[in-house]
Amino acid sequence: MSAGTQVLKPGSVVQDSYRIESLLGEGGMGATYRAINLATGHPVAVKVMSPAFAANRQAVELFRRESTHLRAVQHEAIIRYETTLQDREGRLFLVMEFVDGKPLKHYLARGQRLGSADVLGLGLRLAQGLDCIHALGLVHRDIAPDNILIPGDNVKKAKLIDFGLASDTIGTDKSIIGTGFAGKLDFCAPEQFGLFGNRVGAATDCYALGLVLMKVAGLAVPGEGKGLAAIEDRRDDIGIDGTRISEPLCRVLERLLVADPAGRAIDLVPLFEQAVLDTAHRLDKTPAAKAPPPSAVPPLPPAVEPAPGKANARAGLLIALGLVVLLALGGAGFALMGQHGSARSDAVALAGQALQDDDPMARVDALIATGGADNLNAALGSLMKLANDPVQPLQIRREATLAIARMYDPATHDPARSPFAAPDPAAAQRFYQKAAALTEDAAAQARVSP
């Protein structure tokens, strides 16, 4: 940003309430700054219109519309609104939650991509946010990588930002910019190009989300870089190359990328939840013939030969180990992408050693006690496999399930002993219920034993 367009300087105070710290970035209508709320001391993001746009009535209306929309939305996947201010000079300020992160565009520009399970995790998070705004009768209309913020490199905490182009007229072609174009050409739905009656609605956001997820998965986005000529690539349903991504992700994308919005999937949350469940089921049920090639799992150090009675069960655990650990690490986000890919291999090797041990639960306890990202991720992967493996004794499965529950439980959560940065009461409850069911199974088994 040039000196002539920069509106605020570090140290300046807005309305005696917010002290400007630094420039975060420049958008279409102005600039966004990191600031401090002087009353509470917490950081915020302050968006201010540039002088040129402040003189444009239509731009002012867009800015006011963004603040109105954000005030109505309350969801963890949507940037949180704090207040709107106007100073004596007539400048408008939108004060929002400050999130320490980078836009999705930042990672894509560096060639980083996600595996299918993580793409679905990101999709589910954004689907939950879109479900919230669509329920309020809003359409974002500009779902694109630069409007998706990734806090702390964790895609499972992604947030949608920039509601300046949002419309509150679902099912019509009316908006505050009339029939003019809104959105980024690379990630626009066919109806935004004027096809299918130019009727922009919830399905428009769903299509854009599908294109974004294609990009994140490493697939070529039809029409990207062609400008308005992209309309020729969006007239028909987009077919997905299923050889490079998982079948559940392929199925989701094909539902989202139907050309006619009338036939497009718009009930996003159940769609993604089912795909996530299908992915977990496929990985957990992977047969021996589908085991990852040797290059995918690093060679393990020499181990003590297992006792004769344990060899077959131990082999069954190791066959699916690589996939199970990758599933367990699915929420780790961009920290495990690109140049950081070796973290997964280390965790796979550590989990493999734990499952080869004569007392795998003791080895898992040792990993947890040692701590560190690799050890904790390996412990979780091992526990997930032990908890779900029908070959294991019910007591082992119960102990493993309880250990996972304690990693989630707010009463026992310890970042030094859990791979999860924050507790999750709902997840803890699910695993405690599963442990209780295993206890009942063990009791029933004991009653029928001679």
TrEMBL record:
Residues 18-277 form the Protein kinase domain. Keywords: ATP-binding, Kinase, Membrane, Nucleotide-binding, Transferase, Transmembrane, Transmembrane helix. InterPro entries: Kinase-like_dom_sf, Prot_kinase_dom, Protein_kinase_ATP_BS, Tyr_kinase_AS, Tyr_kinase_cat_dom. ATP binds at residue 47. Residues 285-304 are annotated as: Disordered. The chain crosses the membrane at residues 315-336. GO terms for molecular function: ATP binding; protein serine/threonine kinase activity; protein tyrosine kinase activity. The keyword Transmembrane helix applies. Coiled coil: none annotated. It comes from the Bacteria. Residues 290-304 have a biased composition (Pro residues). This is Protein kinase domain-containing protein. It comes from Rhodobacter capsulatus.
